[in-house]
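Write out the 3D structure for:
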Amino acid sequence: MNPLNILLLIAAYFGVLFLISYLTGKDDSNETFFKANKQSPWYIVAFGMIGATLSGVTFISVPGTVASQQFGYMQMVFGYIFGTVIITFVLLPIYYKHNVTSIYEYLNTRLGATSHKIGAAFFLLSRTIGAAFRIFLVALAMQYLIFDEWHVPFVITVIFSILLIWIYTHRGGIKTIVWTDTLQTFFMLSAVVFAIYFINQKIGWSFSEFYASDELKQFNKILFTNDVNSKAYFLKSFFGGIFITIAMTGVDQDMMQKNLTCKNLKEAQKNMLSMVSLLVLVNFVFLLLGALLYIYINKFGLNVPVLDGKPRTDLLFPMIAVKSGLGLPLAMVFILGIIAAAYSSADSALTSLTTSYCIDFLAIEKKEKSIQKSLRKKVHIIVSIILVIVVVIFNYVLEKDVITGLFTIASYTYGPLLGLFFFGIFTKYKVYERYVLIVCIISVILSYFLNLYSEGLFNGYKFSFELLGLNGLFTFLGLWLIRKK
């Protein structure tokens, strides 16, 4: 595609987003921005959360992992199911019972003001890093495919991208996000389905022939149960999936804010159970696409893309969709899909970070009515600027091949949130709050060094995402030690 066509396509896409923003943002009150007036249809929330859960990382990275991990990613996805059940029947009833706007208000009720702010601070740190990495990863692909041809600096790409997000979220907030996420999920999934169709057509297969092929059998192993020391070992991935879901959905304001826009608890629970059912299917389709991408490059003698002298499997899907001659329709749908992948996580992150800071640190609901809206809008602008700065810093100080590792480091910050919430839920104790921050920091440090030296300490054992649960356990035990008897 030439630059003019790409520009027109992006303009048309954002034109639709701005229309949705106009329709949903006519009432730009704080109640609308933070809670969507609690009128969101549960099925719309469920579908939109698919895109927000997947984000650009899944859209770009997961298909590229199939050569090294086959379909082992599904082991973690199975854990998502059990994690979602815990969220649905343990956490959601608590949030609705306490009628929270920010879920960290529960920590205030249960443990106190200091614990409340510490929990919110860990969320702000976690989500800022996570959102910035997601934007960074997708921006790299956009730069590789599109903007390098225009000689547009990466800094300008990032500023322009986040400015667009600010424009369509600054009035309607979460009410707008619920509907734009639905559109973005549609484009993400359409890109995957179109890619599977066009690649099969190029190879000369129907989908059923591809699914039954010997080539697919080289990639479709799901369960890895032989080597307990391997990061791909089934139980590690499965329990890691449980902990990731609880931490990064259940105690994450970004994801829970959408649930809290449903009319009542029953609808929010239907939303979560429907969402995870679709999520299992969608992740399997992403892995099928990954296998098909590798089959395609093997059949036609192509290579994995190289960036900065290193093979980058993250760029395999973009290369095949846009630069391998599969046709304009696939390239157009892919570009829409990658834009949707970038913004489905970034827009909700911007809104949830604004909500958390306003509620958890500024106590905006206690301010004079006349300044509440203007204060929220100022915070929204500041958060946007912070995201731009963090993404740009990543571009200058990080090696491109350490993104996965840094996501793992960022996930350490969710461990204390797990510990704080589960101590509040499963015990009746208060704590000496002056020690809570110390406990949380020690838990993160212990987890980091345990992961760093695990092979030497545990006969070659390598931690995977089960480390997140261990991090939460350290926090829980630390809180138990500082409990008030």
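The first helix runs from residue 3 to 24.
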